Amino acid sequence: MLISDYHKYRLCEILPGLSIWLTLALAVILSFVKPLWMIYFIIVFDVYWVLRVVYFSFYLILSWRRFRMALRTDWLNKLRNEFPNWEEKKNVIFLPLYNEEFIVIQATLEAILKSTYPAEKMTIVFSGEARNLPHWQNMQPQIMKLYQERFADIVYYTHPANLPGEIAGKGSNLHYMEYQFKKYADERGWNYMNIIVSAFDVDTVVHEQYFAHLNYMYCRHPRPDHSSFQPVTLYNNNLWESPSVLRIMAFGTTFWTMFSLARLDNMVTFSSHSMSFKALMDCGGHAKDIVSEDSRIFYQCWFSNQGDYEVTPLYIPVSMDTARDDKLLKSLKNLYYQQRRWAWGVEHVPYLMWQWGKFPQIGRLKKLAMIFHEWEGKWSWALVAILITLLGRLPLWVAQEEVRQSALFFNTPHVLEIMMTVAMLGLFISAIMSMLILPRRPIGHSRYMYLIMILQWALLPVSLIVFSAIPCIDAVTHLMFGKYLGFNVSAKKRAAV
Fold first, then answer.
1. Is the Cβ–Cβ distance between 64 and 309 less than 8 Å?
2. Distance in angstroms (rounded) separating the CA atoms of residues 457 and 427
3. Alpha-carbon distance 353 to 332, whole Å?
4. Helix pair angle (470-480, 364-386), 10° resolution
5. Predicted local distance difference test score (pLDDT) of residue 169
6. CA dist 203 to 31, 82, 162, 254, 298, Å?
7. Around Cβ 229, how many Cβ atoms within 10 Å?
8. CA 9 – CA 366 distance, rounded (Å)
9. In 3D, which of 90, 144, 100 has the Cα closest to residue 121?
10. What integer pLDDT is reported at residue 14 of this predicted model?
């Protein structure tokens, strides 16, 4: 009996979740049936993870040094001196909207205006949602009144609801505005290679040197249409007003992006990023039928270029909002759903597996490495915190008397304690760096908040389980059973100024 393509793809969707649940089940079963086996596994796993922490810390510090050097560099001056034709480049910023407050949009546009790169050379493209038309119609006149004459142009689109083949979300809105903008560019005879597009969340506040740095790296790249450009992502627009758990998870995401930028291998785009309009059109634009379009666009480009595509790190930051709401419980709920949406990137695993035979020009090892990176990333995300903090202790709690008499049983707690002490290096470095990237304390916040910013890291073990591991398991389980998640818009509120 022939298996349909649908069932083949469903099998690919089941496998990542199955691997996670099998690991959890085996860990529990072995703890009761073969506790010594489980103790050996936990020791080996903890050694492996300690090495990963040291590895992570090394690249995080390396990235931090590059980050500080980039902030001290006059990128516009370098751009003008080294590339006389820099003014040929046209910068286009895509800003999809749904229900964001005008204060959020205003902060984004004001940051672009303060850029060292000339604002009159940048085109802003907004696309609101027809499914939230009153809000979009209310935003347009406010934007026009304050900003219409301050950029090269501001373009407005309305993304229709329920277009065929789409799911409601940022990806479908981006896809629509990209192809609408194609008409705009074609009418003016623009060369796609000279168009640098930045696909931003609307709460993205750029550093003043972002566009100068982006244009310099774009002009410097030998084949800029074969690369995306990924900045450091800081979640600090409303950091001081956010609860401690949200701050910890925000810092964790920032440190993960910094680590990835320094490591380079297997790096993919995440959240706000920039790229050539030619590369964007060649790969078909951002996916309109998935949730994780910000990473999928890299894989689309990677396949359309036969594996000859990369991510160029930008060590200049963009700042975004945490998932803060006015109420603590609502903020925590927003955080959970945000983490689950990011973990829904597990949908890339079946996509990559499905593309395996369609691109024979790409070496098998390259394709296997790409699949392993995505799969192992979600496996670790879902399991590491649980294995180390909970299941790693289970065989010690339930072992029978004959096992308790063994030398391994007596020595294991001491070995684990030593390894966890070494692993605290990562926590110590994270706590220090969180203070270094912390935005200036707003008026009205006590100086004692700095102490809280340090002490809050004690919440990390619980946060990693409740707001990282469990949302990830939730996401992969939904995919495993074909219960597809839609795009959950993270509510992001800032305190009134």
1. no
2. 8
3. 34
4. 130
5. 87
6. 47, 32, 25, 16, 22
7. 22
8. 21
9. 90
10. 97
C-alpha–C-alpha distance, residues 244 and 262, integer Å = 27
Task: Give Cα 47 to chain centroid, integer Å.
Answer: 27
Type of residue at 429: I
- The CA-atom distances, in angstroms, between 394 and each of 21, 34, 274, 391, 463 are 17, 12, 46, 5, 20
Half-sphere exposure of 46 (CA within 13 A, CB side): 27
Quote the pLDDT of residue 490.
57
> Which tokens hold the place of 314?
């930008």
Residue 449 pLDDT: 87
Taking 70 as the pLDDT cut, the residues of the chain under it are 1-2, 403, 408, 410, 487-497
d(CA 62, CA 259): 8
The structure tokens listed for 129 are 């949602």
Closest CA to 237 of 428, 125, 100, 72: 100
Could you tell me how many residues make up the chain? 497
Structure tokens at 323: 């998932």
CATH of 73-333, one of 3.90.550.10, 3.30.70.860, 3.40.50.2300, 3.20.20.140: 3.90.550.10
**pLDDT tens per residue, range 121-170:** 999 999 999 999 999 999 999 999 999 889 999 999 999 998 999 998 89
Angle at 98 between CA 96 and CA 100, to 5 degrees: 100
Every domain of the chain and the residues it spans? 5-61+369-438+446-480, 73-333
Are 114 and 150 in contact by the 8 Å Cβ rule? The answer is no
Beta strands in 273-421, from DSSP E residues, in sequence order? 273-276, 310-319
CA 389 to chain CA centroid, nearest Å: 25
Tokens of 221: 């790249």
Short-list 89, 282, 107, CA closest to 191: 89
